[in-house]
Fold each of these.
Amino acid sequence: MSTLVSLVTSRKSSNITDFYRGRSLFITGGTGFIGKVLVEKILRSCPDVETIFLLVRQKKGNNPAQRLDAILKSKLFEYLQESNPGVLRKLVAIDGNMTLPGLGMTPSDLDTVRKKVSVVFHCAATVRFEEPLKTSVDMNVLGTTKVIELCKKMTSLKALVHVSTAYCNCNRDTVIEEKIYSSPLDVQKLINITSFLEEFQLLETLTPKLLHGWPNTYTFTKAVTENLFEEESVDLPVAIVRPSIVIATWKEPLPGWTENLNGPNGLNAAAATGLLQTMLCDSSKIADLIPVDVVVNLMIAVGWHTATHRLVGLYTKLHRAINALEFFSLHEWTFLNENTKKLSLELSGRDIETFSFDISDLEWSTYFENYAKGMRTFIFQEDWSTLPAAQVRLRRASEPAAKEDRERSKTAARGSAPHSHQLEGFFDVYVVEERRDEQRNANSTSA
């Protein structure tokens, strides 16, 4: 497994690092996948920040401080623990909840954040596709309303960066522009309708009609939330970042780091363990994956750019690759990202290296090798000595479906209809097993 990347301090100037020096930040969703990588990156590359306030709710009997302590002991923060442990004391866990009035914060905490914070990163959201509509509205829409209300009270706010999704307008035609599209339902009307229907136990039945063509409650509520920013944050320095499908780290702080089975991770894990052999997809369609460290670099740069240029913007970061969820594996979109390209050109000095979100030199074969290794190490927590035997089992399990897929491919030229596509061994991308080792393992098993 690849170790921590070599992190070299450059003597070049950094406008971004200079901007964050001495500032206090407020982050929602800091215990989530993107949020953790964001926190680590800021502390490592902008160590002179004053304080990072993290909104953290109590969970499974653990209070916010205990949850933060567990996060800081993870592999993701290993470099900081060894190189600059003192910087971790700049993290302050604030007890709160996105679904409660005032974000569930005490008056004292609210006053502290209001007076000290100048940059806000709003990452918190429920990302489950099958989430009940009421839950998605409460978290993604109403929760964001509370964040905007807090930001309006801040005395020195310079930037509010909201994390949306490139797929929030996936109900539209294939070209998605960098603009906020009108929602089919007014924000307040949606809140009222969901509350009313929930009270009379009709919401689940009528949810498909309320979605107006969106495939799930996640993308729908994200679209509505963007409208909320357009309506309620006219006087605020807001930027919306639309990442596509966020996956494991590319480079930093270590290649291939990931932590859960959400999205593509779950699919790849199922395929790698032999639980999933086929899936419905259109092999002519392509989707978009983006490493989480690239997204985080973009977010930090967007915060700087929004504060120094005082503009409201949409930033879409994407890369065309492969996806596995049915609605998305049968469709494709072109996401315009001109704002991201322009922002990249404004980086100078050390920022070009430290906060790069340019993936033109990303070698996807090497990336997926590290991604696969990361899955095996951080998700399955398997010892590398078991790899040869695991590959043999995977190959044997895949043989029947592979034969069926080859037979199907002989007639595929007749049309381009969606089909069940064989999922080849995900972990095979980084394994070259010599026959003598395989034979040795077979002999050992027989003995």
Amino acid sequence: MAMSRELYWFLWRRNTRYQFITSIFKNTGHTHFKSKIFCVTNQFRQFSREDGMPAGPKIYTRTGDGGKSSLFTGERRPKDDMVFEALGSTDELSCNIGLARVIAKGLTGQLDAQLEKIQCILQDIGSAVATPKSSAREAHLRRTEFSPELVDELEEWIDKHTKHLPPLKNFILPSGGQSSAYFHVARAVCRRAERRVYPLISAGEVDPVVLKYLNRLSDYLFTVARLTAKIDGKEEKIYRKPRPERNSDSV
């Protein structure tokens, strides 16, 4: 039983299921799940320590050394596939939000809780992106279904925070202190994630609600960038059309 629990933890951490195991071992000749379990545990070989206590599996699997990786459906694709481009961008987005949370010392508990929830939702977006409809079964799609109510929730948060900000009359430059600048970086990465996900939406591989959420999330992060500037007492810099400087002493 201890072995099964460790294996379940390992598979869950990689957002996969039994189909992933069968895709790895489809050519091994094993016909029973018990045999597959044995193969996996033999591959990692570090599930127990000398003191008898269970040890976690190795972080590396070697299954991607050939330049391909597995989707949630069990399908293997090249690592430069547009699915992995989208997954990488959403991962970078979550990392940048996490970094901004650490940098921003003046966040309220409510605002920080919202950002943490967003990071969790980005994990769910990753699951949806890693489940292209062309290779997914109905069970996969049900498990990775993305709720449109999450978009509504973001809009409510944006409206609530906007009430505490001065009216927006000019383009805002990424500025407003360190915390605000980090959220502007997260906003820009969010826009890139949106661009990477769009081809999958266009191809009918991913639920369009995912794109709508990312679109709204960039607006949320822009609002939070402005809000943190206000919390920190920093001035936002606005766009002014540059004019050539006229110096009478110039040659």
Amino acid sequence: MSTFTNVRELGGSLQKYNLEVFKEPRGIIRILQFVFALITAIVLKTYEGYIEINYCSKTNPKNVRLDFEYPFNLNIVSAKVECNGTSPIVSLGNDFSSEAEFLFTMCWVSVIYVIIMAFIYIKFREDYESNGNLALVDFGASVVLAVLWIACLGAWGYGQSQLKSLTHPDYLRANLHGCSPGPEYINCITITRGNVVGLTESLILSFLNFFLWAAGLWFLYKETPWYLQFQRA
């Protein structure tokens, strides 16, 4: 009996909140923005790449593995190797942390903003629809986030492209310290790179985030006094 009462009380408390907004385009867009921002952050944060090098002797090669992950500061990815009396430090070099951190930050800013606005939509829906200032603030903030998303998309598009290029086996064979002939030559026999699909996925997801924020502006604009005045004119 107490369980049934608790369920009824929960249902009664939920009725105080109007969830109809999530059946409207504005609410649906917010849900999608939340989901895709969260997925993008997870894909970026959990990506793990590596470079594996067999070197020194073809008959009895030595092996070294260089792992890299978010935030992709390859300057700290290095290993000391030994071959024929030489002991060079092999380092991937380059730093893509600013681009990666920009994307990761945008994801969480978007998630937090959507949570705040969802609370306002549910708890203060009548105020939102009657007070044009709230709708204007929502629209203006969303414009800023959409602009930041396209900037983020451009930055990460460049960053992940460079990351792929500068960790490509052909590039490393020609430019990695020790792999090209010199005083600390270690004779890189084979260079293998791990899967980079996660980087491509993060870029595609970044584009989808930008698209959702840009597309959502129309539905938010329709809630503003500007649109209502235009309709009456």
Amino acid sequence: MEIDSEEEWFLESIKRYKQLIMFDSGNPIKQMELNDFETMCLLCEKNSEQKYLTVLKLPTKVTQTYLGSNEIQLNSDLKIMSGLFLPSPLCRITAIYGEKRLLATNDVGLMIYNIKVSDTDQIGYNTTLNFPLYYPYIALINKSTAILTKDTRKKSLIADLSNGEILRDFVLDENVCNDLIPVCLNENLIALTEKTNGTTHLHDWRSNEKREKIHAGDEGDAALFPASRYSYIQNSNPSNNICFLSQSGVFKTYDLRDSSKPLMKHNLNLSTTDDNLKVKFDPNNNNIVSISGFDSNIYIFDISQNMKEIFKHDGHSRTEDCKKYTSVTDHLWYPTQFIMSGALNNSLNCWIPDTSER
């Protein structure tokens, strides 16, 4: 049931959310990354020519769920710790969790920033790692190793982030030039997905062994975006599954032990032409997946129940002083139940859904 009245929505939200904190960040949020359990970094857009980084200290209402505190008086405010206008355009950011370092891709490869400089809260430039890739995609294998990709005709690189050494490179030699999106399935196995057709190349980068391809795209599919449960942060077990979400709203899961056909395929009845779809997994429940990028909402589904929708967060169109019509650009799961999400209307939400009756 759609609720038009703002007052009705906020009254209803008391029942729908265990926690809901809403902020106006001041500028459109392009991307967000968790630095550690206390801070997160935003890539924001001042205007079409200029982006900036800002580091925020999370509310104690959020961090105390991680520490297990039973304090009653908890702060619900975000604190701006530092900010930095960028000297050159950045495309994507990736935080190295717990290391106070931030990776940013640009036109020469990879820039590294320190989140704290000399025991201050300032962001400081560290170094630039020059790679022959223009605004590459990036995925972290672990805290010191990353995959960098661009497209099927350029070499994909496995790089040592401590010194810029290329540990492995390989080229797919495809006839058609397609953007190549990387995901990690474990510390050895990586998947490189051709965005326009879903063809996914599996590669054991340590042994340099190629595995059988997955053909995830269907005729008529729009761009596909891969995702995996694997996370070096949680030291999670290697994943036997890889998921794909298309711009036409089709979600598929493949089992790597038999990738000839999808383990599950479901039409979410969503569609978009935007190139910003995000698929994230609940770090505490392998069956729960969240999706954003179609509209102003974040959708949470239960994979074990054939992608049953168990929650829809629509708070970004309800955030005070922010435009009603917007698009969610990114979201992430905190190590506990909190989800953080950002949108083009400057809204930043921190929330815990109540799914007890779903």
